[in-house]
Amino acid sequence: MTEGMTAGAQSVLVVEDEPTINRAVTDRLRAEGFTVHQAFDGPSAVAAFEEHDPDAVLLDVMLPGFDGLEVCRRIQAVRPVPVLMLTARDEETDVLVGLGVGADDYVTKPFSMREVVARLRALLRRVERAAELARTTTRMDLAGLVVDAAGRRVSIDGADVHLTPLEFDLLCALAAVPGTVRSREDLMREVWGWGDAAGTRTLDSHVKALRAKIGAERVRTVHGVGYALEVGR
Question: Which pTM does this prediction carry?
Answer without folding.
Answer: 0.71
